[in-house]
Design brief:
Layout (H helix, E strand, L loop, with lengths): L3 E2 L10 H7 L2 H4 L9 H21 L6 E4 L2 H15 L6 E5 L4 H12 L3 E5 L9 H7 L4 E5 L13 H10 L3 E5 L11 H4 L3 E5 L10 E5 L14 H4 L7 H14 L6 H18 L3 E4 L9 E6 L4 H7 L3 E2 L5 E3 L2 E3 L2 H5 L4 H4 L2 E5 L6 H14 L2
Parallel strand pairs: 1-11, 3-4, 3-5, 5-6, 6-7
Antiparallel strand pairs: 2-8, 7-8, 9-10, 10-14, 12-13
Helix pairs in contact: 1-10, 3-10, 4-5, 11-15
């Protein structure tokens, strides 16, 4: 069986250009960027070059980019760093019900420390109403955190509109752009955000690296304390290798934003699934305001995990979880009000730069055989 990878929202392969850019560094960038001698100076130069590339991609200043170990650490630093900086004062946070676990988890943790969190609902397409965000604000609200695009269904949130609401009310605004960066524009000034997270392995860079944009006049408390690297906002010796990989990934992603060919293949897959299964397959997520590579569909009356088990050559995913041997409905689909009969059959197909039309055909054929 020919294996087909169609799970790019989970992780992307490392781009050839990224591999080529970091190969020399495996031998040359061994110096500590904080050291003052020649080896440290050259490492520091490579680190700052990478930072500038990420900043150019996000449309911000280089000193506003903090390298992290990934999107989860960036999200944790944003939420916890702002909370601890305020010493528990003005401790109300507004988020949505469908945030990534690396936002929901810190929110729950901060609740245990006295914070209050309002989780705003979304509609049946996974879209939040900015008026509901506005209505959730209180006098002690210090932060709004809404993801740019959902990782499961791909729905793109009205971030710029929410950003205006945040500014009008003097509230800081963070967005998790791990899934959107490189697929749709994610420039911080256009979005109107104060903090923004990205993850390298969603962007054709290696796992283990990400970045957090923090607007210059926003102060946070480090989550990791130590020698004061990253402008005293994240301690620990930086990985020049991984930072350079992320910088190169951002550089090559910029011209490809919009993913016209990938969008075409995504729509082709959806049309062929509808032709093959008719009313037996339904779309999850917004029909238009959706990432160009993401197709989340439900096979009605089926269980997505069991379908994928029958086509092991296809690497895709479900949002459902297994607990004590029972399969649970995806929390995202549950928040969208999707019924059990539909939601349990959900499969997320997320396409990428390497996806071909032949693979789209093969996936549909494999599903037809599995569900015959």
């Amino acid at each position: 069986m020919t294996r087909i990878y169609i799970d790019y929202n989970a992780s992307t392969p490392i781009a050839p250009e990224v591999i080529a850019a970091i190969e020399p560094l495996l031998k040359e960038a061994y110096g500590n960027p904080s050291s003052g001698h020649w080896a440290g100076v050259s490492a520091k130069a490579a680190l700052e070059d990478a930072r500038s590339r990420v900043a150019s991609f996000l449309g911000c200043n280089a000193d506003e980019v903090i390298f992290t170990s990934g999107g989860s650490q960036a999200n944790n630093l944003a939420l916890k760093g702002l909370f601890f900086r305020r010493g528990g004062k003005a401790s109300h946070i507004v988020a949505t019900q469908i945030e990534h676990s690396s936002v929901l988890g810190p929110c729950r943790f901060l609740e245990s420390l006295g914070a209050r969190v309002t989780f705003v609902h979304v509609d049946g397409d996974g879209l939040v109403d900015p008026d509901d965000i506005r209505g959730a604000l209180r006098s002690d609200t210090f932060l709004i955190s809404v993801m740019h695009a959902n990782n499961e269904v791909g729905t793109i949130q009205p971030i710029a509109e929410i950003g205006k609401i945040a500014r009008d009310h003097g509230v800081l605004f963070h967005t998790d752009a791990a899934q959107s960066a490189g697929k749709i524009p994610a420039r911080v000034n256009d979005l109107g955000v104060d903090l923004l997270s990205i993850a390298g392995h969603k962007l054709y860079a290696p796992k283990g690296v990400g970045a957090l944009y923090i607007r210059r006049d926003v102060a946070i408390e480090p989550v990791i304390h130590g020698a004061g690297q990253e402008n005293a906002r994240r301690a620990g010796t930086e990985s020049v290798l991984l930072a350079s990989a992320l910088g190169k990934a951002c550089e090559i992603a910029a011209p490809a934003i919009g993913m016209t060919n990938v969008r075409h293949l995504r729509d082709l897959l959806w049309n062929r699934l509808k032709s093959a299964f008719d009313a037996g397959v339904v779309l999850n997520g917004h029909p238009e305001l959706r990432l160009p590579n993401t197709l989340n569909v439900s096979f009605v009356g089926r269980v997505g995990g069991k379908i994928l088990a029958r086509i092991p050559q296809v690497a895709a995913s479900t949002g459902s979880a297994s607990r004590y041997g029972a399969v649970m409905l995806s929390p995202v689909l549950a928040a969208m009000g999707v019924s059990q009969n539909i939601g349990m059959g959900a499969i997320r197909f997320s396409l990428g730069r390497g996806t071909t039309e032949a693979e789209v055909d093969a996936v549909v054929a494999a599903l037809a055989r599995a569900l015959a």
